[in-house]
Design the sequence.
């Protein structure tokens, strides 16, 4: 129950365990082509260009920046925690002139502040983290993408902790890049960087004056590969992770079974149940307001007076694995629970039970069963 890598479906793991074929074998060409088509459906972008490249989420972030930025371009980074700061660092490597708008932990940057920045300087790119995995804060990307469009900037959504869990409608919302990694709500073991890029952003990349300063990330190398596989033709630039891509096909198909609407609602319900449970136990979540809390994970402050190490150890003894804090300033003051992807109602119930039990074992007085009741009331509604 950590916010990634998540627990994977047996069918996904079985797909990974099949013999590795050549990356130009007919079965694999089909699988790769299918994955690209399925990504458009999950991202809700009929016309975007999907990319599947071996690497982690940071590579996906890197690919967007490397291909869309040239030295001296202005970037506005909207930072709600750890990964916003990473994006600022990354853009600076490409010689961009970066301005960071940082939110206090648990908060978001006000829209007026974003609009003021966009109205003051001409930005090429606006980056934002949909769900900051360090804080569990979720921003609303839709009005930010609209503002970026209005002021002539491209928008990049870091959806590593949100794609296939939180509602995202890339095309309807006008988001230029929506990127993620395989190991969270996509439901595939770590190792794939996944992006869908709008045609507008592809045009900006094609109109560059300078070569892309990162060989592996360069769309020039990858675009012909994606186009070839989608046309069911073999291609080679770098050997693709054949087994991970086989697993991706299975997972994307399974995500689409309930339809994206069903997927979004399922995550909302589980998240709401978990938040209700911790609230009923007298615990406080890190996001300052409920509407800022993610549906893929939750960050919760430890109650006063308990030893985090003892608490986490007890949760582990209950056969549930949760994560500690990540934000340097508050690291020892909160824990994180992932509830995305294949997490079931029963997984959530087991987690709440383990938390209740461990709070008591760590010396905190709370009413055993109160969290379970609050969660059940929502899950069974
Ligand atoms: N962005 C967000 C929001 C993340 O949660 C993470 C990983 N936890 C990353 C980027 C980086 O992804 P990776 O660790 O796969 O490089």
Sequence:
């Amino acid at each position: 129950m950590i916010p990634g890598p998540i627990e994977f479906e047996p069918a996904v793991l079985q797909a990974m365990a099949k013999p590795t074929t050549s990356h130009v074998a007919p079965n694999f060409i089909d699988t790769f082509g299918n994955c690209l088509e399925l990504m458009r459906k999950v991202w809700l972008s009929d016309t975007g260009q999907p990319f599947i490249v071996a690497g982690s989420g940071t590579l996906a972030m890197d690919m967007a920046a490397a291909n869309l930025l040239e030295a001296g371009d202005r970037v506005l980074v909207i930072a709600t925690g750890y990964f916003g700061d990473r994006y600022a660092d990354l853009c600076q490597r490409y010689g961009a002139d970066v301005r960071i708008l940082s939110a206090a932990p648990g908060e978001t940057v006000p829209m007026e502040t974003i609009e003021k920045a966009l109205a003051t300087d001409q930005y090429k790119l606006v980056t934002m983290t949909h769900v900051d995995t360090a804080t569990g804060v979720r921003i609303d990307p839709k009005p930010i993408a609209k503002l970026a469009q209005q002021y002539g900037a491209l928008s990049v959504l870091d959806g590593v902790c949100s794609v296939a869990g939180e509602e995202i409608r890339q095309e309807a919302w006008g988001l230029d890049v929506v990127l993620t990694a395989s190991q969270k709500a996509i439901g595939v073991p770590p190792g794939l960087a996944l992006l869908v890029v709008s045609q507008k952003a592809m045009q900006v990349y094609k109109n560059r004056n300078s070569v892309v300063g990162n060989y592996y990330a360069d769309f020039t190398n990858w675009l012909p590969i994606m186009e070839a596989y989608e046309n069911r033709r073999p291609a080679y630039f770098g050997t693709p992770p054949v087994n991970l891509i086989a697993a991706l096909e299975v997972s994307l198909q399974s995500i689409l079974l309930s339809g994206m609407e069903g997927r979004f609602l399922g995550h909302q319900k589980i998240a709401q149940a978990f938040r209700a449970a911790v609230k009923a136990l007298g615990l406080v979540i890190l996001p300052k307001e409920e509407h800022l809390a993610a549906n893929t994970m939750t960050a919760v402050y430890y109650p006063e007076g308990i030893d985090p190490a003892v608490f986490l150890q007890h949760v582990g003894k209950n056969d549930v694995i949760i994560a500690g804090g990540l934000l340097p300033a508050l690291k020892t003051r909160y824990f994180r629970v992932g509830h995305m992807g294949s997490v079931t109602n029963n997984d959530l119930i087991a987690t709440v039970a383990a938390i209740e039990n461990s709070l008591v074992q760590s010396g905190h007085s709370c009413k055993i069963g109160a969290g379970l009741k609050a969660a059940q009331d929502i899950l069974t509604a």
